[in-house]
Design a protein that fits this description.
Length: 439
């Protein structure tokens, strides 16, 4: 029995299914290992299936053009087996297992992007805010065509991630296909230590608190509580989960539990009875009254979908934006000896209403496309300052705010100008204001 070592139940990155092109001779000899005993269900028995596998391994070892030993063949077979189960399962050798451990437990040199496979192409789910990829201009839904000089066609996701990681300070070049661009875009990035600040807090006006959650690491609940405590006068809360690729399940559950005091938050169901679990809300200081709006888009995946979907099902929040990514399966990491491991999908997540996230995503209550809202100034309007004898001394007091002071303030507030440049944010703010008035 393989002992399960549940390193993490949610991964913000996704694995891949690859297709192989086989060139075969037109003169195919009849196999001496043909198995004719097929049962009524059209399947060979388990024993015959195992025999078929060992025979094929033997044929490859004896006749394949390059020298391969049994261990190499079995490892390649295992990789193919796992990646063909689903988009998230994989067999990891010692080096890949170590890479995964580094990613889930510590800092690493990299770019700061979450990637997945869409229609067979290596696709950016989202750049993580403040990382080298984000600063270089990588965008959600960019298709990565080349990593330096290596084409990504046929490359599995673990290999791609391994290449993109590296020593901090070293350069890397990504060639991406971007919607709206007539030709591939080349982006130069310098790797750095990826240290993610997961929660950013800003105010909108005097009574709205904006929380941007970039990923669900182990400090998210703490960061949200700290921000709310720092702004006790906030009458409404806007949580921005756009381009958040996910993270830790317990943090997602904890965030929902802050705003719901009873009922199921999320459940998981698998083949093994012990994996059929329900995670319920508690009455531990839950805020069930403050109006709440959640912002999502196609880069919101995994834990982000649990938070937005659960709060939507509980009628606790209005979800605004675009349909989410649709990653709703559970993976565990199982060591299998010699420092190798399996990453295996063992269950699917279900929201409180019983609906699935997998390949479906969360549909917002109010769908809003990204973009900028154009404003037209009233060119003939007359303001107080236009009158000949306006209160100049008072205006001087207002206009005389030091530039440095304004700059510091802008880091903690969202201005009206910033909102008009982000149609989804502006819509979410308007909806939140309406909820406050209605309350």
């Amino acid at each position: 029995m393989v002992k399960k070592n549940k390193k993490a139940l949610l991964f913000g990155f996704l694995s891949t299914v690859t297709a192989s092109l086989l060139l075969v001779s037109t003169a195919q000899a009849e196999s001496p290992y043909k198995i004719d005993n097929i049962d009524e269900m059209g399947q060979t028995s388990k024993l015959e299936a195992y025999l078929k596998f060992t025979r094929i391994v033997s044929i490859i070892e004896d006749q394949y053009v390059d020298e391969l030993n049994s261990s190499d063949i079995i490892n390649k077979a295992l990789k193919g087996l796992l990646t063909n189960l689903d988009a998230h399962s994989s067999f990891m050798d010692a080096e890949e297992s170590k890479e995964l451990q580094v990613q889930t437990n510590g800092e690493f040199g990299g770019l700061g992007i979450s990637v997945g496979m869409k229609d067979g192409a290596l696709t950016v789910i989202s750049p993580i805010e403040g990382t080298p990829a984000d600063k270089a201009g990588i965008k959600a839904n960019d298709i990565i065509l080349k990593i330096d000089d290596q084409a990504t066609i046929g490359m599995n996701i673990d290999k791609a991630v391994s290449i993109m990681r590296g020593k901090p300070g070293t350069p890397i070049q990504l060639t991406v296909i971007r919607k709206g661009e007539p030709k591939p875009v080349v982006v130069d990035i310098v790797r750095d230590i990826i240290e993610i600040q997961s929660v950013y807090a800003k105010t909108i006006g005097e009574d709205l608190l904006y929380l941007r959650i970039t990923s669900f690491d182990q400090k998210v609940i703490e960061g949200i509580k700290k921000a709310i405590k720092k702004h006790p006068k906030a009458k409404g809360l806007l949580i921005d989960l756009r381009n958040n690729p996910g993270g830790l399940l317990n943090q997602a559950i904890g965030v929902v539990d802050m705003f719901v005091d009873e009922g199921v938050i999320v459940s998981q169901k698998g083949k093994v009875a012990s994996e059929n679990l329900f995670y319920n809300a508690t009455k531990n200081n839950s805020d069930t009254k403050t109006p709440l709006v959640i912002l999502v888009n196609g880069g919101s995946a995994s834990a982000s979908e649990i938070v937005s979907g659960a709060l939507q099902d509980h009628k606790r929040a209005v979800v605004v934006g675009e349909k989410t990514f649709g990653k709703g399966s559970v993976q565990v990491v199982m060591p299998v000896g010699n420092d190798e491991s399996l990453r295996l999908t063992i269950a699917r997540y279900y929201l409180p209403s019983g609906r699935t996230i997998q390949a479906v995503g969360v549909t917002p209550d109010i769908e809003v496309a990204p973009g900028e809202i154009k404003r037209f100034e009233d060119l003939i309007s007359i303001k107080e300052r236009d009158l000949q004898k306006h209160l100049e001394s008072e205006l001087e007091k207002v206009d005389g705010v030091a530039e440095e002071e304004k700059s510091d303030e802008n880091k903690t507030i969202i201005t009206e100008e910033q909102m008009y440049k982000d149609a989804q944010l502006k819509s979410a703010v308007d909806i939140l204001k309406a909820l406050i008035i209605n309350k």
